[in-house]
Structure formats: structure tokens, C-alpha cells
Amino acid sequence: MTRKPKAVERKRGSGVQIVYSILRDDILDLTLPPGSPIDEIQLSERLSMSRTPIREALVRLASEGLVTTLPNRSTVVSNIDFMNLHTFFDAMTLMYRVTTRLAAQCHTPADMDAIRARQVDFAAAVEAQDALAMIATNREFHAVIARAGRNPYYEALCLRLLDEGRRLLRMYYSSFDDQLPKQYVQEHEDLIDAITARDVDRADALASAHADQIVQQIQTLIARDKRQHISL
């Protein structure tokens, strides 16, 4: 853990948020890879604070599935279940399709304003090549689309999948060296156009294609042969 926290003037009760933000960024950015131990004593010394806010932050991260507490009470960064990744991809693709279809049917002008605002944020993050900002703004973009569909059950499931997929999305962006091609920003624009036009079938098809290219890129990255050919 090499990243140093920004100098901040801590207010009462803000220690938990500081620890949470630092660890969350390190986990999502894969600075702390899956399986890495979380050393509470080292964190306490590094951040110059007691272990109480650290433990509270770890509880919050555990509720998001980012860390796991082992039977011996030590804590590690949660592993990514690559063996069952296909089930996550199936669910993610379905949620993209369902929520985008519903948004095309049910959106209001206020919903479209929110969707467009989140797209501006996402495009700015892509332009800045800021992977963590891309992850955050992409989540909010799809979250407001899900909200526009007016089905709280689908919205809740969509948010859960978006959160669980954050580290996979980090791998996705890293496969482009964080220089995401503009065509993927355009995919969001196309989704907005279809939703605005209330073209349910086109919104569905675009959402499916959008999910498919993310899945294919991650699968290609995972399957990449990294062996080195050595002369003997």
C-alpha cells in the first residue's frame, strides 16, 4: 500500500470516511489486488489514527463485497470469482437491457436531464484518462437510466451488479491503458438518443451490444496468453 492519503483536516467522525475512501480506491484501482491482506496496525500507523475507524471502514467495505473477514478475524481483499464470471455477465447484460428498455418507456424530461449530465461527467473522465472517475461516472450514468425505468426492484439489482462489477470495469479500462476509445463514449450517446426517442427496441439492442463488447473485452483480457517464449 504505497498511496499516501491527501492531507485533510479531519472533523469528528470523518476518520471512517477517510479510511473507507483510501482503501476503496486502492481496491478498485487494483493497487490492492484480490487476496491482499489488510493490516490494521500498518493502516493505523500510516493514517495516524486509532484502529476503531479502520474497523468501521472495513465493515462498510465488507458490506459492499470488497473485503472479506476470515475465520481468524483477519481481513483480505475479496477475490473475484472468475470461475462463475459467466453468471455475472448474464445478469449484467439482462439488467442493461431491462433498465434501458424501461427508461425508453417511462422517462420524464427531468430523467433525461440527469442522464445527459452524467454522460458529460463520464466523457470528461474519459478525456482525462482517469480510470477511477470513469468507473464512478459510468455507474452513475447507468444508475440514472435504471431510475428512469420506475421499477425499484430492477434499479436495486442493477446498482448491486454495477457495484460488484467495479473491479472488472477497472480491468476493462486497463486493457485500453485507460485510453478508452471514443466509440465507447459514443455508445452512451446512442443509448441516450434511443431513450429520448422512446425507441424501446433500439434501446434494447444498443444496451445488449454495449454489454457484449465489455464482456468480450474482459474475457479476452482474462484469456490472454502471457507466457514468455524462452530459448533453451
Describe the structure concisely.
By secondary structure, the protein is mainly α.
In words, what does this structure look like?
There is one protein chain. The chain is mainly alpha-helical and 232 residues long. It has two domains: 14-77, Arc Repressor Mutant, subunit A, CATH 1.10.10; 82-231, Four Helix Bundle (Hemerythrin (Met), subunit A). Helices cover 67% and strands 3% of the residues. It has ten helices and three strands. Strands 1-3-2 form a three-stranded antiparallel beta sheet. β2 (67-69) and β3 (75-77) form a beta hairpin. The model is unreliable at 5-9 (pLDDT under 50).
Sheet/helix structural class:
mainly alpha
Shape estimate = globular
Cα(first) to Cα(last) distance is: 38 Å
Poorly predicted sequence stretches spanning 5 or more consecutive residues: 5-9
Summarize the amount of helix as a percent range.
55-70%
Stated plainly, the CATH topology of the largest domain is called: Four Helix Bundle (Hemerythrin (Met), subunit A)
